[in-house]
Design a protein that fits this description.
By secondary structure, this protein is of the alpha/beta class. Helix content is about 35%, strand content about 30%.
Length: about 150
C-alpha cells in the first residue's frame, strides 16, 4: 500500500462501484474484500482503478460525495474522452459542466483531454484565457473547439 491512499465511503454500493470502475478503466482490479459474515455484503475493500489504489467502505447514509473531491482522468485524445464519457453516461452518470460528470454512485469525475492541459500551459495569457472561456461553455470537453479558441486568440 502507498503512504497515502484515497478512501471512499459509499452508502451500500461499494461492490457495484468497484465492479463498474474496474470494468471501465484499464489497469484496474479488486484486491481485498471483507464481508459482513461469511456470505454477507461487502463491508470494505481495497481496489485499483487506472493504476490508482483506493480503499472503500460501505459506511451507510452518513457520508456522501461532493464536487470538492473528484477523480481526474487524463485522456490522450478526443476518442478517449468520448470513450470514458460514454461509458459513464451509459451507467447512469449525470454530465455537469466543464468536463465534469457525476457517476451513479455520487462520485465526480473530470474527463480531460491532455491537449487542454497543454493549451492552458501556454505563456500567452490571452490564449490561455480564450481556452478557459471556451472550456467554461462546454459540458463534455471538445478538443477541436479548444484548439480553435487557442488559434483565434
Amino acid at each position: 500500500m502507498t503512504k497515502v491512499t484515497p478512501f471512499l465511503m459509499f452508502n451500500d454500493q461499494l461492490e457495484a462501484a468497484m465492479e463498474f470502475y474496474t470494468a471501465t478503466f484499464p489497469d484496474s482490479q479488486i484486491r481485498n474484500v471483507a464481508r459482513t459474515g461469511t456470505d454477507g455484503p461487502i463491508s470494505s475493500a481495497e481496489f485499483v482503478v487506472g493504476g490508482q489504489l483506493f480503499m472503500g467502505y460501505n459506511g451507510g447514509p452518513y457520508f456522501s460525495f461532493s464536487e470538492g473531491v473528484s477523480l481526474y482522468v487524463d485522456c490522450a485524445d478526443q476518442d478517449e474522452v468520448d470513450e470514458y464519457w460514454d461509458k459513464l453516461v451509459k451507467a447512469g452518470a449525470t454530465p455537469t459542466a466543464c468536463g465534469w460528470i457525476k457517476d451513479s454512485f455520487g462520485l465526480s469525475w473530470q474527463i480531460v483531454p491532455r491537449r487542454f492541459t497543454e493549451l492552458i500551459r501556454d505563456r500567452d495569457p490571452g490564449k490561455v484565457k480564450a481556452v478557459m472561456e471556451a472550456m467554461m461553455t462546454m459540458v463534455k470537453l471538445d478538443v477541436a473547439a479548444l484548439e480553435r479558441a487557442y488559434k483565434e486568440a
